[in-house]
Amino acid sequence: MRFFPVIIFLLAQPVAAAETVPEPSLLGSSLKMVAALAVICGILLLFYAAQRKGFGVLPQKKGGLIKVLETRPLGGRKFLCVVNVRGEELLLGLSHDRIECLTKLPGRESFDVTLQQVEEAQS
Question: For the chain, what is the mean pLDDT?
Fold first, then answer.
């Protein structure tokens, strides 16, 4: 009989401990999850903005020989593309199975030079 109070005391301990621990609420867990998701999305947006500004972690291509200046879709899988290759501008026609050089474009001149040429041609 001496052990009976000890056994009751030991059995009552887990019950008393369980009563003091509050049950997790669904709202609290949801708010924690949304806050963690917002922090992760914010960090990803910061990395994206840094990459766009040139401060990214990934190496960026340095100036190469070929630079695509402009691309215009013509419909379907056909495009016109202006590229600069070693100082020359080329107009390319692109389709899904072919690339064709349509013409070499003349060098760009400033607006003043073009205006003077037009005025001379008219007079």
Answer: 81
pTM for the full model? 0.43
Strand partners, 101: 92
Distance CA 117, CA 123 (A): 10
How far, CA to CA in Å, does 29 sit from each of 10, 36, 72, 108, 110?
Answer: 33, 11, 50, 62, 63
Q: Where in the chain are the domains?
A: 25-60, 61-107
Q: What average pLDDT does the segment 85-102 reach?
A: 91
Q: Which residues pair with 79 in a beta bridge?
A: 73, 94
Q: What is the C-alpha to C-alpha distance for residues 34 and 101, in angstroms, rounded to an integer?
A: 53
